[in-house]
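User: I'm preparing a small set of examples for a lab meeting where we compare how different chains pack in three dimensions. I only have the primary sequence for this one, and I'd like the structure in token form so I can line it up with the others. Please keep the answer compact; I'll paste it straight into my notes.
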Amino acid sequence: MIVRLSPHFTLAEMTASQTAARRGIDNTPGDSEIAALRSLCVEVLEPVRKHFDRPVIVSSGYRSPALNRAIGGSATSQHSKGEAADFTVPGVSVLDLAQWMHRNLNYDQLIYEFGSWVHVSYRVGRLRNQELSAKRIGGRTKYLPGI
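Assistant: Understood. Below is the structure token output for the 147-residue chain.
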């Protein structure tokens, strides 16, 4: 059975993980995480899909706590709450995508990640509308203000 979170996004694509499959990690979200994923899809990803009229390719959506640990994610990652996704839009530069989102959407965090993808989070309630850029400096990831 296909579980639709919004017109263009399914639960399966928002929970898909090659790492989880390879390592046998259960990446099944609970009801609160599914509700958060639905809000993320409706409030952020669908408007991106509509504006650019192109598929949104999610490389990382929900991560169970075990999966998040396995990939070395932050212990406070919004991915583990179903509130975040990393994605690209084919044929649209990541910078153009991040800048359009900054000008047109509400979100909790918008991170321009290494010039390669966008990380966005959304949570019901108070949104920070925080923009950051992730860069490698001295072999470490640094989060700098702005896009």
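A couple of notes for your slides: The mean pLDDT is 97. The longest strand covers residues 130-137.

User: Perfect, thanks.
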